[in-house]
């Protein structure tokens, strides 16, 4: 088969085929010789709806400029064809990536979903609904780092948050139930598609994999529950987001606002330029608090800054900038840990003084089966009051063990124990009637929730691989 011929481009090979277009790899003849992808559309095969879709796609791509959206470089036409010149994505598409890997680790899935969410956030800000999100339309760039980009806006349209449509658009396997069942729908259809993509990334297949359209339609119509493979394990946050996206009823589906704010994605700390400036501002405040001897505030600010810096460090591809940033991050980690130790030693001294005074006033407390003498009086009282409720005293003991691991610098075990303790105490707090025990329990839960968050912030810094600069670009992104 001969390749098309146009004045400004040399066609190299066919790299894809769609319903009414063929995509070629090409190179621009002018200097510099840029490699691009050209979608070639045969005019004679276009129906009126296909022409409308093509015009919409071109008009949208003229204005949509985002790091995670495939960029249109040019468009032109001749007697037989319409050509759309796009940036060339050298990593293929997400569908082939999943097939090659069979299924993706949760951290890789998070990375791709975070990038997809950033693109969707930009689309929603411009009132655009993609309408055909699927792995085949999510393209990958290998260089300078593995990056996901949303492509193929042939079915996209402007859709305000409250606006509804009836027209069937998209690919059946990734199509929201309300479209498939010919109900009214709105922009939330994109969120269902994201859920199907997420499921396929995690488990290597779609939740409603079927042998025919009729079989798929029946599963959707019957609202069959989404089942996770029995042999698989995903974190609670990952599972929560997945099942929140795959709600058949759009009114029960997670909203875009909650999707962008979900803890699994953590868009708040995404490696973008805006967050670099935010991290720098936090560090400046931390240094100021440190100089003013406001130790606890300085610890909090250093730790919060590190939550922004770590993703930026992992994502950095320039080796010189990466090493400079790594050096700064290590300094902040070291200082945060020094302040943490100072703070812990001070708190322990203060608590011992409080315990001594309390024991002088209430000697009978010495006979209680209490925890270590370094714990506060309020904790001792709470522990004594916890004996009447199943599981509470055990959870308090686990929480105290977490504090000890934290003081020893064993952040991984400390976080595990904090989470285990809070997993019992938080539901108990929700059922606790008003009174002294509830006040004490609320205070302890708040204290440990803050400690768990600080532990998580310090723990993530331990995951930085000092040899990352020598790894491949793909490994850098996927660590």
Describe the structure.
There is one protein chain. This protein is α+β, with helices and mostly antiparallel strands and 479 residues long. It has 3 domains: 9-87, Phosphorylase Kinase, domain 1 (2-Layer Sandwich), CATH 3.30.200; 94-269, Transferase(Phosphotransferase), domain 1, CATH 1.10.510.10; 273-461, Phosphotransferase system, lactose/cellobiose-type IIA subunit (Methane Monooxygenase Hydroxylase, Chain G, domain 1, Up-down Bundle), CATH 1.20.58. The protein contains 16 helices and 9 strands. The protein has helices spanning 48-63, 94-101, 106-125, 177-180, 189-203, 213-221, 236-245, 256-260, 273-291, 295-315, 319-361, 377-385, 392-407, 411-431, 436-461, 473-478; strands spanning 9-17, 21-28, 35-42, 72-77, 81-87, 128-129, 138-141, 147-150, 157-158. The strands form 3 sheets. Strands 1-2-3-5-4 form a 5-stranded antiparallel sheet, with helices on one face. Strands 6-9 form a two-stranded antiparallel sheet. Helix 9 runs antiparallel to helix 10 (295-315). The longest helix has 43 residues, at 319-361. Residues 361-375 and 464-479 have low confidence and may be disordered.
How many β-strand runs? 9
| The CATH superfamily title of the largest domain | Phosphotransferase system, lactose/cellobiose-type IIA subunit
**Which H/E pattern describes the elements?**
EEEHEEHHEEEEHHHHHHHHHHHHH
The total domain count is: 3
Q: What fraction of residues sit in β-strands?
A: 5-15%
Amino- and carboxy-terminal Cα gap: 42 Å
CATH topology of the largest domain: Methane Monooxygenase Hydroxylase, Chain G, domain 1
Assign the CATH class of the largest domain: Mainly Alpha
Please state the structural category. Answer: alpha+beta
Shape: globular
Largest sheet: 5 strands, antiparallel
Please tally the helical runs, counting DSSP H or I stretches of 4 or more residues.
16
Q: Give the % helix.
A: 40-55%
The CATH architecture of the largest domain: Up-down Bundle
Q: Looking across the biggest beta sheet, what order are the strands in? A: 1-2-3-5-4
Low-pLDDT segments, ≥5 res:
361-375, 464-479
User: Which whole number gives the mean pLDDT?
Assistant: 83
Please state the CA-atom Rg, rounded to the nearest Å.
28 Å
């Amino acid at each position: 088969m001969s390749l098309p011929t146009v004045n400004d481009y040399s066609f190299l090979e066919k790299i894809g085929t769609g319903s009414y277009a063929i995509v070629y790899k090409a190179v621009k003849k002018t200097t510099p010789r840029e490699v691009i992808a050209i979608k070639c559309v045969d005019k004679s095969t276009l129906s009126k709806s296909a022409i409308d879709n093509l015009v919409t796609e071109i008009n949208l791509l003229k204005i949509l400029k985002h790091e995670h959206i495939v960029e249109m470089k040019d468009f032109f036409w001749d007697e037989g064809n319409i050509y759309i010149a796009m940036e060339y994505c050298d990593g293929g598409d997400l569908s082939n990536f999943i097939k090659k890997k069979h299924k993706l680790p949760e951290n890789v899935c998070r990375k791709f979903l975070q990038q997809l969410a950033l693109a969707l956030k930009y689309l929603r800000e411009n009132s655009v609904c993609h309408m055909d999100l699927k792995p085949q339309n999510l393209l990958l760039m290998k260089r300078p780092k593995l990056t996901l980009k949303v492509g193929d806006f042939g079915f996209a349209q402007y859709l305000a948050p409250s606006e509804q449509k009836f027209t069937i658009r998209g690919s059946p396997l990734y199509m929201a139930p309300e479209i498939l069942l010919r109900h009214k729908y709105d922009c939330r259809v994109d969120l269902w598609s994201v859920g199907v993509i997420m499921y396929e990334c995690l488990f290597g297949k779609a939740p409603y994999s079927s042998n025919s359209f009729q079989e798929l339609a029946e599963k959707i119509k019957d609202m069959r529950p989404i089942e996770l493979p029995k042999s698989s394990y995903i974190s609670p946050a990952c599972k929560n987001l997945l099942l929140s996206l795959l709600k058949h009823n759009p009114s029960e589906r997670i909203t875009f606002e909650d999707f962008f704010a979900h803890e699994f994605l953590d868009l708040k700390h995404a490696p973008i330029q805006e967050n670099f400036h935010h991290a720098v501002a936090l560090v400046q405040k931390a240094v100021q608090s440190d100089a003013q001897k406001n130790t606890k505030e300085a610890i909090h600010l250093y730790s919060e800054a590190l939550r922004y810096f770590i993703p930026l460090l992992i994502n950095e591809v320039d080796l010189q900038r990466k090493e400079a940033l790594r050096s700064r991050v290590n300094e902040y980690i070291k200082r945060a840990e020094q302040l943490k130790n100072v703070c812990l030693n001070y708190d322990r001294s203060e608590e011992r003084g409080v315990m001594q005074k309390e024991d002088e006033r209430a000697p009978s407390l010495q006979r209680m089966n209490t925890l270590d003498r370094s714990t506060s009086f309020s904790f001792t009282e709470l522990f004594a009051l916890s004996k009447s409720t199943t599981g509470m005293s055990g959870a308090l003991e686990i929480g105290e063990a977490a504090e000890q691991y934290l003081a020893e610098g064993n952040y991984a075990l400390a976080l595990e124990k904090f989470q285990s303790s809070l997993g019992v105490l938080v539901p108990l707090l929700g059922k606790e009637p008003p009174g002294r025990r509830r006040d004490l329990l609320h205070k302890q839960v708040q204290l440990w929730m803050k400690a768990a968050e600080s532990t998580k912030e310090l723990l993530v810094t331990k995951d930085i691989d000092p040899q990352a600069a020598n790894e491949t670009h793909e490994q850098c992104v996927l660590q």
